[in-house]
């Protein structure tokens, strides 16, 4: 039986190989991806920036062995040394040059936010046309994920080095746009009300720049139960204090946002640590919501558990309006550094739902 699978696989591979036109840019989801030096790409939970004809891929540089920290018992989760934020560049999306660490972690000072024992996850970089600065946002946390903060760094150049500005819990002192008096009533279980003064918990996150240049941070808040959409200041360095609660009590994380035909779309996941769960998607006419759930966008073998993956970013293909690539991590929780990348095209069905269909091999749009 096994031989039959192998033989079928080889035949399919040869047929596909013959089908791809010469010079085609081919993506093979879930296979080992190497940079131009032949090293395996180390950029997990990543994000993408397209700037002056070049794609920059930023991600978690996961260093060395995966271990089970004692402090992390409550989560039962595995961890790896945080090496910082890596950066790779490409003009064709398949050939990636290692640009080194855009933001290194701090191996010397165990009390520093960027200490290697801490968490540096889901980095995203946006470019501010007004200030001409590249601004990096990421999930900064303590080893047991209790700090739940956002880190910000800034650079004059896309590959860095970025200067670390610090971390905080977003929106201290601000009330959500859509909070009712009931939502704000203090009670031991009301995390929104508890954190009004000191700032809201922020774990998995992404940032998104709208057509008018206004930027927003999406972060899993209130102990991962509710997501917040938070407008950033004009310089993109702080929250502007205007935010809304979305997917209330639905425990979404891993948000990836894009805009198509005037609508905002989100791909995300549920909260099961490094283990995969059914993908989620949603659409909204206004970025602050309401967001309407569209279900699991994945189709094909393995779709029920997002092909063993979790979302990290949706990339609009430059110069190809309507073409988007959904980027996922296939986490290997026993060896996080070896987690793989799964990129698949996004499609829209007749009802406007998102579709991400499994493919062993596909060709990027010319
Ligand atoms: C799920 C998140 O999406 C990941 O970024 C990471 O924080 C893991 N949880 C840790 O268990």
Description:
There is one protein chain. The N terminus is likely disordered. The protein is globular. The chain has a domain of 137 residues: 5 Propeller (Tachylectin-2, Chain A), CATH 2.115.10. By secondary structure, it is mainly beta. 6% of the residues lie in helices and 43% in strands. It starts with a helix and ends with a strand. The chain has two helices and 23 strands. Strands 18-22-21-20-19 form a five-stranded mixed sheet, with no helix packed on it. It has a four-stranded antiparallel sheet with strand order 2-3-4-5, with no helix packed on it. A four-stranded antiparallel sheet has the order 6-7-8-9, with no helix packed on it. It binds (2R,3S,4R,5S)-2-(hydroxymethyl)piperidine-3,4,5-triol. The site of (2R,3S,4R,5S)-2-(hydroxymethyl)piperidine-3,4,5-triol has 10 residues, from β6 and β14.
Write the layout of secondary structure elements.
Elements: H1 2-19, E1 26-27, E2 44-51, E3 54-67, E4 79-90, E5 97-104, E6 119-128, E7 133-141, E8 149-155, E9 163-168, H2 191-194, E10 205-209, E11 215-221, E12 226-232, E13 239-246, E14 253-260, E15 263-269, E16 280-284, E17 292-293, E18 298-299, E19 310-316, E20 324-330, E21 340-348, E22 354-357, E23 362-363
Parallel strand pairs: 18-22
Antiparallel strand pairs: 1-23, 2-3, 3-4, 4-5, 6-7, 7-8, 8-9, 10-11, 11-12, 12-13, 14-15, 15-16, 16-17, 19-20, 20-21, 21-22
Task: Describe the structure concisely for a colleague.
This protein has helices at residues 2-19, 191-194, and strands at 26-27, 44-51, 54-67, 79-90, 97-104, 119-128, 133-141, 149-155, 163-168, 205-209, 215-221, 226-232, 239-246, 253-260, 263-269, 280-284, 292-293, 298-299, 310-316, 324-330, 340-348, 354-357, 362-363. The chain has 366 residues and is mainly β.
């Amino acid at each position: 039986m096994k031989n039959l699978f192998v033989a079928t696989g080889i035949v399919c591979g040869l047929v596909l190989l013959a089908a791809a036109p010469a010079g085609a840019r081919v993506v093979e989801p879930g296979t080992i991806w190497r940079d131009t030096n032949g090293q395996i790409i180390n950029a997990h939970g990543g994000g993408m920036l397209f700037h002056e004809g070049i794609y920059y891929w930023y991600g978690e540089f996961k260093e060395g062995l995966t271990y089970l920290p004692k402090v992390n018992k409550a989560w039962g989760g595995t961890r790896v040394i945080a090496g910082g934020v890596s950066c790779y560049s490409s003009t064709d999306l398949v050939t990636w040059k290692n640009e080194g660490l855009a933001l290194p972690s701090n191996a010397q000072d165990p009390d520093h936010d960027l200490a290697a024992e801490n968490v540096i996850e889901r980095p995203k970089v946006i470019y501010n046309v007004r200030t001409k600065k590249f601004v990096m946002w990421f999930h900064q946390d303590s080893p047991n994920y209790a700090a739940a903060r956002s880190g910000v760094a800034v650079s004059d150049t896309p590959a860095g080095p970025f200067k670390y500005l610090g971390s905080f819990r977003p929106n201290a002192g601000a009330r959500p746009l859509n909070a009712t008096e009931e939502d704000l009533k203090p009670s031991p279980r009301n995390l929104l009300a508890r954190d009004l003064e000191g700032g809201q918990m922020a774990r998995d996150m992404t940032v998104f720049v709208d057509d008018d240049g206004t930027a927003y941070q999406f972060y899993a808040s209130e102990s991962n139960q509710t997501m917040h959409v938070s407008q950033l200041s004009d310089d993109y360095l702080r929250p502007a204090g205007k935010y809304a609660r979305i997917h209330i009590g639905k425990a979404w994380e891993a948000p990836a946002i894009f805009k198509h035909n005037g609508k905002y779309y989100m791909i995300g996941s549920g909260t099961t640590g490094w283990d995969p769960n059914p993908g989620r998607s949603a659409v909204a006419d206004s970025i602050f919501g309401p967001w309407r759930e569209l279900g699991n966008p994945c189709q094909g073998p393995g779709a029920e558990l997002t092909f063993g993956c979790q979302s990290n970013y949706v990339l609009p293909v430059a110069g190809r309006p309507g073409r988007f690539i959904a980027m996922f991590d296939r986490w290997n929780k026993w060896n996080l550094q070896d987690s793989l990348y799964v990129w698949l095209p996004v499609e829209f069905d007749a009802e406007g739902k998102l579709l991400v269909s499994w493919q062993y091999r596909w060709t990027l749009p010319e």
